[in-house]
Amino acid sequence: MTSRTTSAGPAAVPAPRTRPRALRLPGPGRTLSVRWDPRATAVGLLLALAAAVVGVWSLTTGDFHVPVPDVLKVLAGDGPPAADYIVGELRLPRLLTALLVGAALGLSGALFQTVARNPLGSPDVIGFTVGSATGALVTILVLGAGAASVAVGSVIGCAITSAAVYLLAWRGGAAGYRLILVGIGVSSLLTAANAYLIARASFNDAQSAQVWLTGSLNGRGWEHVWTIVATLAVLGPAAVALGRPLRMLEMGEDTAAALGVPVERVTSGALVVGVGLTALSTAVAGPVPFVALVAPQVVRRLTRATGPNLLAATVMGALLLAVSDLAAQRMLAPTQLPVGVLTGVVGGCYLVWVLARQWRTGRG
Fold it and tell me: Are 347 and 294 within 8 A, CB to CB?
């Protein structure tokens, strides 16, 4: 079977090469058929296993080494006092925040790229992440509100930005290329606004805000974990429910509508869910770049499966951010880098690789 690219742009990915299968389960009075893809399932399981290995490794390493058996005892609730404090109170909340924020970003990236039908349709490219950061900065630097209000400001900023981008891109429908071009323009304006807010702030506020704008997991505790857990618990099932109509939407709006898919309702629902995931992830960890852009594309290259690959993209996002945070902690130890620096390097290297690969194959 020949290979082709599915989307225009520098980050186009190969066309799917695998066929899903139907798993038939016996049920009362009828047979239940579940659609699944063996390769996508295997990739998802391997990514989950890799995330677990990275997680255990990050819990053992640091200025105070904790052996793996002690880590497992802490996770079982029966660890030594010193290990219980270091792992349970310092390292585990940060690790879970990294995994859950990465999962939320990977899921939101898969939703946005499917709606835009373009691999550049990522929340950090089309301005939603920057808008979320603007709302948080206004809350902190202008209104002088506390940390508890950052999430509210982040959600409001992301919601206003997404509504503005969607309305400005609307011409009888929000076509993918218009959504991306308008989003890039809005992102540039908001980046300038963020720079102005930091320039007029006091030195201490500007310094802390600049670190937050890079994307950081330093000092994250259980309150941040519960925030993102609640986010995924509410929006995750909604995203999974949108998986099937979004898969049909990839065939084109006219074809999907002919098959009975409520196109505008599905598109709006995916945008609302993606905005919520992006906003609350940004409120917890700051605007972490490139995870939402890279995770869905890497997953599609690995699985070669049709559809948005929501679950696999979620696991890939968790793995990417966990690995990046571990590198941010240990590369220049005892100095800890903001995790956004590492994800920026990973994303930049990925885009360079894609462009070089397309140039070698004559598609650049």
Answer: yes
Res 19: pLDDT: 55
Q: What angle do CA 222, 289, 150 make, to 5 degrees?
A: 45
| Distance from C-alpha of 94 to C-alpha of 89, rounded to nearest angstrom | 9
pTM: 0.86
Nearest-10 crossing angle of helices 92-116, 291-303: 70
Encoded tokens for 69: 């058996």
Give dist(CA 276, CA 176) in Å, integer.
20
The pLDDT of residue 108 is: 94
Q: How far apart are CA 306 and CA 37, in angstroms?
A: 9
Residue type, 95: L
Cα-based torsion angle of the residue sequence 50, 52, 58, 64 in order, rounded to the nearest 10 degrees: -140
Give the model's confidence band at 146: pLDDT under 50 very low, under 70 low, under 90 confident, else very high. low
C-alpha distance from residue 199 to each of 141, 157, 210 (Å) = 11, 19, 10
CA-wise closest residue to 279 among 167, 163, 145, 193: 163
**How many whole angstroms separate alpha carbon 216 and alpha carbon 219?**
9
| 320: three-class secondary structure by DSSP | helix
